[in-house]
Design brief:
By secondary structure, this protein is mainly α. It has one domain. The protein has 13 helices and no strands. The chain is globular, with a radius of gyration of 18 Å. The two termini are about 20 Å apart.
């Protein structure tokens, strides 16, 4: 029985890990397929269709007392976060943009300690600190090309996602998973609509390449990814889920290496290995206890 339970947890981790692996493709899709310098439009087109699809499939209306929580989560998990995500994607190399999120597990541990009074597991804490060190090595390596606004956007986005994961687990109700995810996406998309209209340059024409990029991000990178992600949030430790987010830079770096010929060598490679080691160690430390 214990073996079956452990196998189920491992399978859940693997399914949840698909989400950040898909998110790691955001950077190459943004730079290679989407119109340049339109973070609000990109976030709007990514979120709204996904929200409409999931809300229509779920056919579930939140209860009166659930609306405030859903709106707050929509802002943290989607509206502001995705604008910052695209700002970082436009200004930073994919692997570098994603790896800033290495700070998430450490932030989550601090938040749980501050709010719930639960001290972090020592091994998970050490592994998360190593992940942050790995992030710093990547940022400061001589071959890294980084932009201050991009770094600030990626860091702020990581902070918002940490708060979103924490609150999503605390505020999770009996609402069906598709509805819980879909209403956040839909509300965030509606919020971004006027900003996309007023701030970004208008989309005069859309090429086939643009349509493929937006469609991929909305259907796979958002609809599928966030259903898997919120399912993991509901059933796994918040710290474990946060550490899985670090698979996004791994995905981004591999894709950049395979498709764009980007290289990562020397001390930067050691930093990347440290980040990956951090992910694996946190999962190993937390899965048996399922805290």
């Amino acid at each position: 029985m214990k073996s079956n339970s452990l196998l189920s947890i491992i399978l859940l981790i693997l399914l949840t890990a698909i989400a950040p692996a898909l998110w790691g493709t955001t950077y190459i899709v943004t730079t290679e397929l989407l119109p340049a310098d339109r973070p609000f439009i990109a976030a709007f087109i990514r979120l709204l269709p996904a929200g409409i699809i999931l809300v229509l499939i779920s056919q579930h209306l939140p209860k009166r007392h659930e609306w405030l929580h859903i709106i707050i989560l929509a802002i943290l998990n989607f509206a502001i976060f995705h604008v910052l995500l695209f700002v970082a994607a436009y200004r930073l190399p994919g692997g570098l943009a994603a790896v800033v999120g290495a700070i998430q597990p450490l932030m989550m541990m601090f938040l749980i300690w501050l709010v719930d009074g639960r001290k972090p597991a020592h091994l998970a804490l050490v592994a998360s600190i190593i992940g942050v060190i790995g992030m710093a090595v990547l940022l400061l390596s001589p071959n890294s090309s980084w932009n201050l606004i991009g770094i600030l956007a990626a860091t702020t986005g990581a902070m918002l996602m940490t708060c979103g994961i924490f609150l999503a687990r605390r505020w999770r109700t009996e609402m069906p998973l598709l509805a819980f995810t879909g209403w956040q996406l839909l509300i965030a998309g509606i919020m971004l609509a006027p900003l996309a209209w007023l701030i970004d340059p208008p989309l005069v024409t859309l090429t086939t390449k643009n349509l493929v990029g937006y469609g991929y991000l909305s259907l796979l990178g958002t609809t599928l990814a966030y259903v898997l992600w919120f399912n993991g949030i509901a059933k796994l430790s918040p710290v474990a889920v946060s550490s899985l987010g670090l698979l996004s830079p791994i995905s981004a770096v591999i894709i950049g290496w395979v498709m764009l010929g980007e290289t990562i060598t020397g001390i930067a490679l050691l930093g990347l290995i440290a980040v990956l080691g951090s992910v694996l160690t946190v999962q190993w430390a937390l899965v048996p206890k399922k805290i």
